[in-house]
Amino acid sequence: MNTRKQLSQQNGRLQILNCLLEDDSQESSREIVEGMTQRQKRLPSKYFYDANGSWLFERICDLPEYYLTRTELAILKENAPDIMAFFAGDFGDLVELGSGSNRKIKILLDALDGADLRKIRYVPVDISESALYEASQELLYTYSDLDILGIIADFTRHLEVLPPGRKLITFLGSTIGNLPSPERIAFLRGVARVMNPKDGFLLGLDMLKSPDLLEAAYNDSQGVTAEFNKNILGNLNRSFSADFTIADFEHQAVFVKEKERVEMHLRATRETSARIADLDLSVSCRGGETIRTEICKKFSRAAAQRDFKTAGLLDTGWFTDPLGWFSLVMLRKAGGPW
Ligand code: AVJ
């Protein structure tokens, strides 16, 4: 793939590499048009995360029903020394795909002593340059010896821009669950392809559990998730000059047993139409019709292991909470010398 890299910032301990091309915006437009002209209309989940959506997502993480973040943070705290033993004695990059806030990476960094901290470089990868820049500034301030290489990229498409040296790649939050099966496998294959035999890949997975718990996590009593879901239309209105009537839609989140996933939809409560001016696209929804905005795959260990095998990855360690609700899996490239 043709990727023009731009070193847009370089000041001391922070470098930012911008891999987003103009043709990315064409690619984004294509994705939206394709999704919105299917029988089951759908939108790419990445459009949740404008500034407002990112703020709403941080609020979701603090909701009592949304156990995912809390549980993953607890697992990270408990196992950070084991995880970061990856860097014992050896220099390397700590890569975080979809970096967002610094909460998780700080737990990992705090498990290192000063000497080891100087041996690593933090490599956040995110599509939002402003979010990445702000988060990086905070880390530079907190960790006075840390070097950061920020990469502005869509990690589902630009994995080949990761630095070639020794690295621990992290992909947390069960964000992998947002990718439909074929894309999920392709993504895992892509990670395996950019890994050296001694690299590590730490993957966060939300595990299958009772449908009541799963549905509650996406239907919180304060309505924050509903607001988050509707914000995707707000973002299209702002970013693509669209005119969706947000009040015509209601939030819906259901566990689909056969697919072992929660699906979030926006359901039109009456017939409604909108024009997405920048994409030259008109969209109409019948009353009761839904736009699927997100899928959140829930994993059994066996199902995850099948994916790993297909992708050429090998699980070498599972870290989980006492109830087994969430897992962090340490992976290696299959077929290596260990
Ligand atoms: C952080 C993307 C994994 O799927 O659970 C939270 C996003 N969506 N509430 C998830 C989300 C609805 C979250 N991910």
Question: What does this protein look like?
Answer:
- The chain has 338 residues and is α/β, with parallel strands linked by helices.
- It contains ten helices and 15 strands.
- It has helices at 22-36, 51-61, 67-84, 103-110, 114-117, 129-142, 181-194, 211-217, 224-239, 301-311; strands at 6-11, 14-18, 41-42, 92-97, 120-126, 147-152, 167-171, 200-206, 249-256, 261-268, 272-276, 281-285, 290-297, 313-320, 326-333.
- It binds N,N,N-trimethyl-histidine (AVJ).
- N,N,N-trimethyl-histidine binds next to strand 13.
Supply database-style keywords:
alpha/beta, nine-stranded mixed sheet, 338 residues, globular, 10 helices, 35% helix, single chain, binds N,N,N-trimethyl-histidine, four-stranded mixed sheet
Spatial strand sequence of the major β-sheet: 1-2-6-5-4-7-8-15-14
Strand content: 25-35%
* Heteromolecules bound: N,N,N-trimethyl-histidine
The residue fraction in helices comes out at: 25-40%
Count every helix, treating DSSP H or I runs of 4 or more residues as helices. 10
Tell the overall outline.
globular
Cα separation of the termini: 32 Å
Radius of gyration: 20 Å
How is the main sheet built?
A: 9 strands, mixed
- SSE pattern, N- to C-terminal: EEHEHHEHHEHEEHEHHEEEEEHEE
Spans of at least 5 consecutive residues with low confidence: none
Number of strands: 15
Category from helices, strands and their pairing:
alpha/beta
Q: What is the average of the pLDDT values?
A: 93
